[in-house]
Write a structure and sequence with these properties.
about 350 residues, alpha+beta, five-stranded antiparallel β-sheet, 12 helices, about 45% helix
Amino acid sequence: MELDARKRQILQAIVLDYVATAEPVGSHGLIERHAIGVKSATIRSEMAELSDWGFLRQPHTSAGRVPAVQGYRYFVNFLMPPPQLADGERRDAESSLKRAASELEATLRKTCQLLSQLTQLPAIATPPDTDDTRLKKLFVTAVAPGAALLVLLFSNGRTENRVLTGVSLDAAEALLLADELQKHFSEKSVRQLSRPETAREVSSPALALLAPLWRRIASEVQGVAWGLHAESPVFVEGTQGVLRQPEFRDVERLDHFLTVLQERAALVALMGRQSNPAPVSVQIGEELGRADFSEYAVVRSPYFVGERLTGTIGVVGPTRMDYARASAAVQLMARAVGQALTRLAVA
């Protein structure tokens, strides 16, 4: 439904005031804070129509109005100020992530921390999809008498290290072994590496004396790949921020929300994934597809490693959130984490 200019102005003012104060908005408050240019009675009449049409709701008979889900949706689609952050905020967030970006999990965790700080909402990131993840490099080297270090570098920026004890390996053997390992395992997907045939016997005659070590390394590679291919952790930071939200002063609502943040399946569902995702998407209330999510909203964005869509990052909170700021922050951190992981992938 299209709204005329006055109703759009009133709806925009109510959303902005309610997001800022968490208090129902009345006609007198609108007149005091906004240059709407009509009398209180006219504003009340317009608010009543907006309520009848489903854009506003009245929590109590004598209270002002608050936005309904339809009102938030109209605001996000047509009335929301351009998403933007202060230049200093952008620079600080990007430089903080660059300093912290040393490996996959640390990068995603730091990204969520920064996003939560920018929005004062819990931030969530799904890890890179392992279906397209490939093993880029692997090598083994002696690190102490009777011990060797196996290093695996994946295309999504993840690094896995394994210490192999009870191993005797000189420099020449390590070089030969590294060359054969690279030929046999590199550029294979995590799905391929997790299969049983990964640990098959080495066929190179030059490695006959190293066959036991080869089998051990192959088993380690298979185990790492299986772990990556199985359920990966979803990263959540900033859950303490919900304690500052008036919506969660109700103990039951707080308990439900914190429970959702601990359920991997629920978090994956909240973040979602689309084949042709928009730079940022907003889902509000029943748009999330679950009745028990009707009072929540999610702002999320995909992130890319190179040109490949890899995962999703976003924030979740009550429907009363600053959608413009959340959208700007999510877009910023999605771009920053994608750049950081791309650097790790090609390092």
